[in-house]
Design goal:
Two copies of one chain form a homodimer. Chain A is of the alpha/beta class and 324 residues long. The first copy, chain A, contains nine helices and 13 strands.
C-alpha cells in the first residue's frame, strides 16, 4: 500500500476536486465536479465523490497506475475516529457516516479527515513544514481554519475538533459570525474579513484608485485576489487592508502560541497568497503579544507552499498511510 | 524505582513546600521553608530546596522509607527538556539549569516541570481527571495557569511553554497585565481579578454587608477566600463577583476548547474552591460560546480534588516515573 498512488479528494463549500497523487506528493491526474452547496443532499455529494474517483481510476488505470486508497479532506467537523462528518457549515451533512459508505461503494480503503488537517499534513510531508514536528497551520480562506501537528502527528482532539481556531473569540461582543457567536477570529482575519473591509473602504470613499478600478466603482465586485493584486502594485489602501488583517492574524497567533507553543506557524489559504504583505504585520503583532517574549524562543511564521493542492495531496497521503 | 517513595517540591511565588509521597499519591511527610520572592537569588532558592529535601529524607529514613527521586514543580517557564527554568515572573530565575544542579547536590534523580503541569499530572493520576486522556487543567490562583494532557501524556509544546492560557488575550486593549500585555485572560479570571473587583465594589459602596464585615470597612483587607465564604453564606454581591469571574472563565474555556478540544476541563487553584458558585457560570458561558455547539459533544467542567497538594503529589509522581 505505501508505495501505491492514492486519490485525494477535497470537498469545500464550492467544489469537489480530486487528484491522483504519487508517494512523493506529485499530482498525476486531476478531476473536478459539480459544485455542492449547503442545500445539496448528502447522497448527491457522495455520488459526486464516487464519480470523480471512478473517473480518475479509469484514467490512470489506462496508464498502468494502480490506485490503492482514497483520502477525503472535508470542510467540516469530522469525528475523532474519522468515521462521521458531524457537521459542516457549508454542506448539509449532519452525522453522516461518510467513510464506511465510500469504502463500500468504491471497494477501496478510505480515510476521511478535516480539510485543514489534510492541508497541514501535506505541508508537513512535502511543503513548508517539512522536517518540523510541532506545527500549527492557519488557513485564511473564506473563513479561518486550522490544524495542529504535535510530535509529527496530527492532533484531532477528544472529539475530532481541535484546531477550530477561527471561532476563538478575539473581540468580546464583536462582529457577528456565521457560527452564531460574536467576535470570532475569522471575522477579523480571513478572506471574508479582507473583502468586507475593502468594500467598506471603497464605499466610504477611502479606497485607493487601484481598488476602485478593480471593481469598476462597484464595491460588491471586489474580491480578495483584487486586494492582494492592488497591494502588490503598491496601492497604499490595499497594503493597509492586508496590514489590518495581518495584525489580527498575529494577535490570534499569539493566543494560539500561548496555548499550544508550536515551533512553526504555516499560513495558507487564498489570503496567504499575499505573502509578506500579510505575514510581516502578523509577525510583528505576534512578537508584540506573545506571552513571555524576550524570555523564550519565537515560533516562526511562514507561508504555505502547496497552494490549493495541499488538501488533495494531504488527503491522498493520509489515505496511503491509513490516517496517521 | 517505580515502587519507591519520592519527594515532591512545589515552588511558588511565596513558598517552597515539599512532601514525601508514596506510589499511590499519599503524602507521608511534609516540610516547608522560608519564602522566596522575586529578589531572592537563585542560589538561595536552590539551597532551600536542598534543605527541605534533606530534612524530609532524614525524617522518613528513620522510618525505613527510601526516597528514590525528587520532583520539582516550579511556577515558571521550564524548557521542553526539563533542564532549565527559562523565566519565572515570581522568582529571579533566568535560564537557570536547576535540574542538573539539584541532581548533583542531592545525589538522586531529579525532574523539573511547570507547577501547573505537575498539578494536572496529579489530578490525572489520583484526582478529578483519573481515567481521562484528553484533559486541560486551568488553575485560578494569583494568576491563571494551565496544563494540557493529551493521549494521557503531558503536552509541553515545542519550547516547554504550552498551556500558558492566562496570557491569551480576551479583551483587546483591555486591563494591563504583569506580563506587559493588555487584556490577558488572567486579568478577568483569577484570584487577583476576584479580589480587585471585590475591593472596587466595596469602595464604590456596592459591596454587600458580608463583604464589608469581612474587611472591617477596609477594602484592601479583602481576600479571595473572604469573597468565597461570603458567597457561600448567601451574600448576593459575592455570588455576583464569582459569577463574573466564572463567566470569564467559561468564555476563555470556549477558546481553549476551540483550539485543543479536550474532553474534560479540571479547574483548580484557590478560586476553584468556590466550586459550583464559580463552575456553574463557567459551564453556562462555555456552552454559549463553544464553536459548533449543538453539533458536538460538550467537554465536562469539574473542580480539582487534590487542592494545594496537587503540585507536590504530581511532581513526586513525575519524578518516580522519570517525567512521563
Amino acid at each position: 500500500m505505501a508505495g501505491a498512488a492514492a486519490i485525494g479528494v477535497d470537498i469545500g463549500g464550492t467544489k469537489v476536486a480530486a487528484a491522483v497523487v504519487n508517494p512523493t506528493g506529485a499530482v498525476l491526474a486531476r478531476a473536478r465536479t459539480a459544485t455542492p452547496h449547503r442545500t445539496t443532499a448528502p447522497a448527491v455529494v457522495e455520488q459526486a465523490i464516487v464519480d470523480v474517483v471512478t473517473q480518475l481510476r479509469d484514467e490512470v488505470g489506462g496508464q498502468g497506475i494502480d490506485v490503492g486508497a482514497v483520502g477525503v479532506g472535508a470542510a467540516g467537523f469530522v469525528s475523532e475516529d474519522g468515521e462521521v462528518i458531524r457537521f459542516s457549515p457549508h454542506l448539509s451533512w449532519r452525522d453522516e457516516p461518510l467513510r464506511a459508505e465510500l469504502a463500500r461503494r468504491l471497494g477501496l480503503p478510505v480515510v476521511v479527515d478535516n480539510d485543514a488537517n489534510a492541508a497541514l499534513w501535506a505541508e508537513s510531508r512535502f511543503g513548508a513544514a517539512r522536517g518540523a514536528d510541532d506545527v500549527v497551520m492557519v488557513n485564511l480562506g473564506t473563513g479561518l481554519g486550522g490544524g495542529v501537528l504535535r510530535r509529527g502527528q496530527l492532533e484531532r482532539g477528544r472529539f475530532g475538533m481541535a484546531g477550530e481556531f477561527g471561532h476563538m473569540c478575539v473581540v468580546p461582543d464583536g462582529l457577528r459570525c456565521e457560527c452564531g457567536n460574536r467576535g470570532c477570529w475569522e471575522q477579523y482575519a480571513s478572506g471574508n474579513a479582507l473583502v468586507r473591509e475593502a468594500r467598506a473602504l471603497v464605499e466610504a470613499g477611502g479606497g485607493g484608485s487601484a481598488l476602485v478600478a478593480f471593481c469598476a466603482g462597484t464595491p460588491a465586485a471586489l474580491t480578495g485576489p483584487c486586494v492582494t493584486q492592488a497591494a502588490r502594485d503598491g496601492d497604499p489602501a490595499s497594503v493597509g487592508l492586508l496590514q489590518e488583517v495581518g495584525t489580527w492574524l498575529g494577535r490570534g497567533l499569539a493566543n494560539v502560541a500561548a496555548a499550544l507553543d508550536p515551533g512553526l506557524f504555516v499560513i495558507g489559504g487564498g489570503v496567504g497568497d499575499a505573502g509578506d504583505l500579510l505575514l510581516d504585520p502578523a509577525r510583528e503583532a505576534l512578537a508584540r503579544h506573545l506571552p513571555g517574549r524576550g524570555f523564550r524562543p519565537m515560533p516562526q511564521v511562514v507561508g504555505a507552499r502547496l497552494g490549493n493542492d495541499a488538501g488533495l495531496i494531504g488527503a491522498a497521503d493520509l489515505a496511503r498511510r491509513g490516517r496517521a
